Amino acid sequence: MTAADVSSAAVPPPRRPAPLLTDDNAFFWEAADEGRLVVQRCQGCGRLRHPPRPMCPDCLSLEFEVVPLSGRGSLYSYAILHHPRHPAFDYPLIAALVDLEEGIRLVSNLSGVEAADIEIGMELEVGFAATENGGAVPVFRPVGAGQLGGAS
Amino acid sequence: MSAPGSSFAGKAAIVGIGQTEFSRHAGRTELQLACEAVTAALDDAGLTPGDVDGLVSYTVDPVEETELVRSVGIAEVAYSSRIPYGGGGSMGVLLHAASAVASGAAEVVVAYRAIRARSGATRFGGAKVAPSPTSGHSGTTAMQWCMPFGVLTPASWMALNSTRYMHEFGVRSEDIGRAVVQLRAYALTNPAAWGYQRPMTLEDHQASRWIVEPCIHLLDCCQETDGSVAVVITSRERADDLPQLPVAIGAAAGAGLFEQEIATDHYRGDLSVMEGSVALARRLFGSFGFDREDIDVAMIYDAFSPILLMQLEALGFCGPGEAKDFVAEGNLGPDGSLPCNTNGGLIGEGYIHGLNLVLEGTRQLRGTAVNQIPGARTVLVTASRTGAILSTR
């Protein structure tokens, strides 16, 4: 048995599906692959926008820059998913809407907390979870909850 | 704002309705189901396929119009349209059909939906990884931002809003369950319904397994259904020469807001309010001459029960956070102030992607509903961002 075989037996490969990249959204997901959480900022008026889009709905500028986010926010809402189950995830799976301190909202997952302890408004921080294609996506845990576990 | 509906309001009428059986395994294609419902609706209207010159539908339609035309034998289609936003656009067929008829673009318009939500290639409520970042004009564009996080189903998308709604207003699962009990009570006597002769109590509701905690038990979900329904619309004048009591489209409107999505509606500031339905109600009860007090029966898109409560508030039948009390007081029942989804709704009768609610509204106005509300003359039909007021006044 080779070292690679031992490694793959000990740690199952990530099953989480990779995001679908387009010319409009690739900057977000490619940054996440590198462990960075970013957002579009309009170069015309400075508005932050997510999900990404090619034009600023305020000033109609097509020019934007990609700027980092702090990765800190609070839980706006959540959903504990029980059924139906997709083979890529472990259940129950906690879906979360996270309001970042910069005013951006993300759909993500919440881990590092028991279902009974989830509270809307709780303070969260970002981490990154591996995807099946070797990339990563931003996921969240309560501030101070330690390392994110597993694929969920 | 100018009167948005004054040019077509009341000028078109529903003159025929038709449907197949509703089941969990139709055993035939959506196309065949549509053919059966369309021809049944034309029979009901006293018309033939040769009379049809308009076809309207809404997205997530598995039936190709060309196939329907060549199957039913329609000679020439003058007007076709597809309303975006999937089930949220289902009532938009009435706006399009009435506009087409009133403008003269078409004379006899058929609206239809066929679906195999249970036995089709994929179950409608199943967990699917989207193959594309676009949504086929269903308005669920943001599903691409849900997919890597396992948020893969309509229930999971809407649950994020529903949890916030419950948190904001102190709504509990049993508050929502009381609405389901009423829907199932209506379905109990409807032979076409999945819930026919299947009694359900609040205890049953609470004991049913979680689909999404803390807001959607199994019995909060509509029935994934196989079947088809169709509606025939023509001018108010021609309707007088046809056999059925004309049901006028007295008002029809749509309202979609900046940053609003269907189901994956996660990016507006306050998700505890269905603001698109607030805007829809502003239009429907604005300049068409109808008030909320005029509504004898309301047919409201209940894919999942929490959004029924949220729409009752957004449409203005009660205040924010008051739907739980409005429901508990029995207002949705046959003796309440707003008999609602009297066929059992999408939860109790079945999910023909919303359009079966229009058939029930029509039956109420004809006086032929199983759970007939005496003297019903004005019916509201709504689905999130599209709606209409049907009337025999």
Concise description?
With 152 residues, chain A is mostly beta strands. Chain A has helices spanning 3-10, 26-33; strands at 38-42, 48-49, 64-68, 72-81, 93-100, 105-109, 123-130, 136-142.
Write a structural description.
The complex is a heterodimer of chains A (152) and B (393). Chain A is mainly beta and 152 residues long. Chain A has one domain (18-142). Helix content of chain A is 11%, strand content 33%. Chain A has 2 helices and 8 strands, in the order ααββββββββ. Chain A has a 5-stranded antiparallel beta sheet, covered by helices on one side. Chain A is globular. Residues 1-6 of chain A have low confidence and may be disordered. Chain B has 393 residues and is α/β, with parallel strands linked by helices. Chain B has one domain (12-121, 222-391): 3-Layer(aba) Sandwich (Peroxisomal Thiolase, Chain A, domain 1). Chain B is 31% helix and 17% strand. Chain B is built from 13 helices and 11 strands. Chain B has a 9-stranded mixed beta sheet, with helices on both faces. A two-stranded antiparallel ribbon of chain B has the order 5-6. In chain B, helix 1 crosses helix 2 (65-72) and helix 6 (173-187) crosses helix 10 (305-314). Chain B is globular and about 55 Å long. Chain B starts with 11 loop residues before the first strand and ends with a strand. The model of chain B has no long low-confidence stretch (mean pLDDT 96). The chains are: A mainly beta (152), B alpha/beta (393). Chain A binds chain B through residues 16-20, 22, 25, 50-51, 57, 76-86, 88-89, 92-93, 95, 97, 105-109, 115, 120, 131, 137, 139, 152, and chain B through 123, 125-130, 132-133, 142, 144-153, 156, 159-164, 167, 209-215, 218, 258, 266-267, 271. Strand 4 (72-81) of chain A pairs antiparallel with strand 5 of chain B, so a sheet runs across the interface.
Helix proportion of residues of chain A, in percent?
10-25%
Second rung of CATH, namely the architecture of chain B: 3-Layer(aba) Sandwich
C-alpha termini separation of chain B = 26 Å
Large-scale geometry of chain A: globular
How many helical stretches of chain B? 13
Succession of helices and strands of chain A:
HHEEEEEEEE
- Which term fits the overall shape of chain B? globular
Structural class of chain B: alpha/beta
Distance between the termini of chain A: 30 Å
Q: With helices defined by DSSP (H or I, 4 residues minimum), what is the helix count of chain A? A: 2
Helix-strand makeup class of chain A = mainly beta
Assembly annotation: heterodimer
- N-to-C order of helices and strands of chain B: EHEHEHEHHHHEEEHEHEHHHHEE
- Mind describing the biggest β-sheet of chain B? 9 strands, mixed
Number of domains of chain A: 1
Can you list the strand order of the major beta sheet of chain B? 3-2-4-7-1-8-11-10-9
Number of strands of chain A: 8
Question: What is the CATH superfamily label of chain B?
Answer: Thiolase/Chalcone synthase
Strand content of chain A: 25-35%
